[in-house]
Design goal:
- It is a single chain.
- Helix content is 33%, strand content 20%.
- It is α/β, with parallel strands linked by helices and 461 residues long.
- Strands 7, 8, 9, 10, 11, 14, 15, 16 and 18 form a nine-stranded mixed sheet that branches.
- Helix 4 packs parallel to helix 5, helix 8 packs antiparallel against helix 11 and helix 13 crosses helix 15.
- The two termini are 39 Å apart.
Length: 461
């Protein structure tokens, strides 16, 4: 995306922030002419109100944004949609939001998915970088999340396993990382049988993307992302409505790509590894079937209770491989269950974690950077629901209750207790546009995961 920022401008217009509790006081301090203008616009001092101010020459002289008593970065994202075209500069303190975060929200608010549009949207407002903003950090964060949004929103016809691997290879090249891609039947030769089983029915070969960056001696941080580029449900076919937006089923993969991009751009002192099993869950004569028994990289066998519970199948091979190096922390992201959406809605990713310290770091980071999540339990009392009479484990219980928990418990079977591990079950999509978050793909929890990694590395226990 083209960032809406300039380094300087002699003709920029000021944007002032007024806290909602101080609005009436501020308004009384304005000239009678300005008060009359503001009142005529209908602005009454509610949080999010923006008024464009006229100058004596009748041209735009500036603008005022009303912010809540405890603003977050997203309160500044409204500037991209409410300000007229032109170049603007922020002239008052947005505390307690940093100028860096305010610019992140502004930048993300300008994201548009126009790949297939013959007519592009007109240029919106531009903004001068504030001196107090960390330009490099803000730019890296905006570009990482915009990349993830683009990947998720791209139709599956143009975002299959090969294209997802190409995106990872482009990212690796940009940051001098190493990347290996295992394709098709080579997955069997290199012992990723579940990734192969789920993806083999598609004409687009499955693959395992393995990116490594950083010094071997630094703390190991491993990211795993679900890369189901389209999910028909397999032989347990989804209904039309359930299949409609399955292009976003690789949202977990896009999210860990965004986190990896932020980590590498910040040059954090970690040895980063990112594993993405990339498949298309299709229907054909060689598709895996309900009640098939399939081996895993760990060596345990899985009875297929439902072919539409495929995300946990491809993740289990990648998680076992990622855990084999005993990283200091491992995080997976996946659009895994509808049950998590029923429990928490679309905006709140479910967090499962086998380590209380890691969970608290992630929850605190989510609060700090306004990237929320909610912890759900790895309740061992439901483990028996995954029992199988013919294999070591079943991938899908025969009951609908607690579906997000049983999915997480399935994944837990492939992560040893001595590896701090967090699992995010997310929507990866904005159903409606809000300030800074246009409708379309979204890298939910990406900023929080990055912030938690950064904090843990700078303050090791």
């Amino acid at each position: 995306m083209s960032l809406p920022f300039v380094d300087r401008s002699s003709s920029s217009l000021p944007v002032q922030f007024v806290g909602q509790p101080k609005w009436r006081t501020w308004l009384r301090e304005q000239s009678a002419a300005r008060r009359g203008w503001i009142e005529s616009t209908g602005v009454s001092g509610h949080s999010g109100d923006l008024v464009v101010l006229p100058g004596r020459d009748g041209k735009v002289a500036g603008a005022v944004l009303v912010i809540p008593p405890a603003p977050t970065l997203w309160d500044f994202g409204v500037l991209t949609s409410k300000l007229p075209a032109g170049t603007w500069r922020l002239v008052s303190d947005p505390a307690p939001v940093s100028m860096t975060d305010a610019m992140v929200a502004i930048g993300l608010g300008t994201w548009k998915f126009e790949r297939y549009k013959a007519k592009k949207a007109k240029q919106g407002p531009r903004f001068v970088w504030p001196e107090a903003a960390d330009k490099g950090r803000a730019t890296a964060m905006i570009e990482a999340i915009a990349m993830a949004r683009d990947l998720i929103t791209t139709p599956s016809s143009d975002m299959g396993p090969a294209e997802l691997a190409a995106a990872a290879q482009d990212l690796a090249k940009a940051h001098k990382a190493k990347v290996k891609v295992i394709v098709g039947d080579d997955l069997l030769k290199q012992n990723y049988p579940m990734v192969h089983a789920v993806g083999r029915a598609s004409t687009r070969a499955p693959r395992l993307i393995d990116l490594v960056w950083g010094r071997e001696s630094d703390p190991k941080v491993t990211l795993v992302g679900k890369g189901v580029c389209f999910d028909t449900g397999g032989l347990d076919l989804k209904p039309a409505g359930g299949m409609l937006n399955m292009k976003k089923d690789m949202g977990g993969a896009a999210t860990v790509l965004a986190v990896a991009a932020m980590v590498m751009a910040a040059k954090l002192p970690v040895r980063l590894r990112m594993l993405v099993p990339a498949v298309e869950n299709s229907v054909s004569g060689n598709a895996f079937r309900p009640l098939d028994v399939v081996p895993t990289r760990k060596g345990i066998s899985v009875e297929i209770g439902n072919t539409d519970a495929e995300g946990r199948l491809i993740l289990c091979d990648a998680l076992h491989e990622g855990a084999s190096e005993k990283p200091t922390m491992m995080v997976d992201c996946a659009t895994l269950t509808g049950a998590a959406r029923v429990a928490l809605g679309t905006d709140l990713p479910a967090l499962f974690c086998n380590d209380d310290a890691l969970a608290e770091d992630l929850l605190a980071a989510g609060r700090d950077v306004t990237d929320p999540m909610w912890r759900l339990p790895l309740f061992a009392g439901y483990r028996h629901l995954l029992n199988s009479k013919v294999a070591d484990i079943n991938n899908a219980p025969g009951v609908a209750f607690g579906g997000a928990i049983t999915a997480a418990l399935y994944l837990k079977e492939f992560v040893p207790d001595d590896v701090p591990w967090a699992h995010f079950d997310m929507m990866a999509w904005n159903n409606a546009s809000r300030p800074g978050r246009p409708e379309g793909g979204e890298a939910q929890a990406a900023r929080a995961i990055f912030a938690a990694i950064e904090k843990r590395i700078s303050n090791p226990t």
